[in-house]
Write a structure and sequence with these properties.
With 113 residues, the chain is mainly β. The protein is built from no helices and ten strands. The protein starts with 10 loop residues before the first strand and ends in a 5-residue tail after the last strand. Belongs to the universal ribosomal protein uL24 family. InterPro entries: Rib_uL2_dom2, Ribosomal_uL24, Ribosomal_uL24_C, Ribosomal_uL24_CS, Ribosomal_uL24_KOW, Translation_prot_SH3-like_sf.
Length: 113
């Protein structure tokens, strides 16, 4: 299932894989893979390219598939988004928190004629 609501800057929770249970912020998104801060960190041996530069081991975040994450709120609790259409035609993503509707993000602003 493609999770089309995930964008750069969103907070996500990893639901499968080695980093299951960890939360982080989306750094980048390309097609069906996302880069999450502090998740799927791998070590890479970088060779010296110029004279005087030292070889080093660098930690890099690698992309993970979008189906392995779920959107979460500030505390790291999974949320399920719904689309709410206003009277003026605006679209908004909302989720339920203790029975109350909480606005997540505005999708489409109304067109003024």
């Amino acid at each position: 299932m493609k999770q089309k609501w995930i964008k750069k800057g969103d907070k996500v929770l990893v639901i499968s894989g080695n980093d299951r249970g960890k939360a982080g912020e989306v750094i980048a998104k390309k097609d069906s893979r996302i880069l999450v801060q502090g998740i799927n960190v791998r070590k890479r041996h970088m060779k010296a390219r110029q004279q005087g530069q030292k070889s080093e081991i660098v930690s890099l975040e690698k992309p993970i598939h979008i189906s392995n994450v779920a959107l979460c709120d500030g505390e790291g609790k999974k949320i399920k988004l719904n689309v709410k259409i206003g009277k003026d035609g605006s679209k908004e993503l909302v989720y339920l928190d203790n029975g109350k509707e909480v606005s997540y993000r505005t999708l489409k602003k109304p067109v003024k004629a």
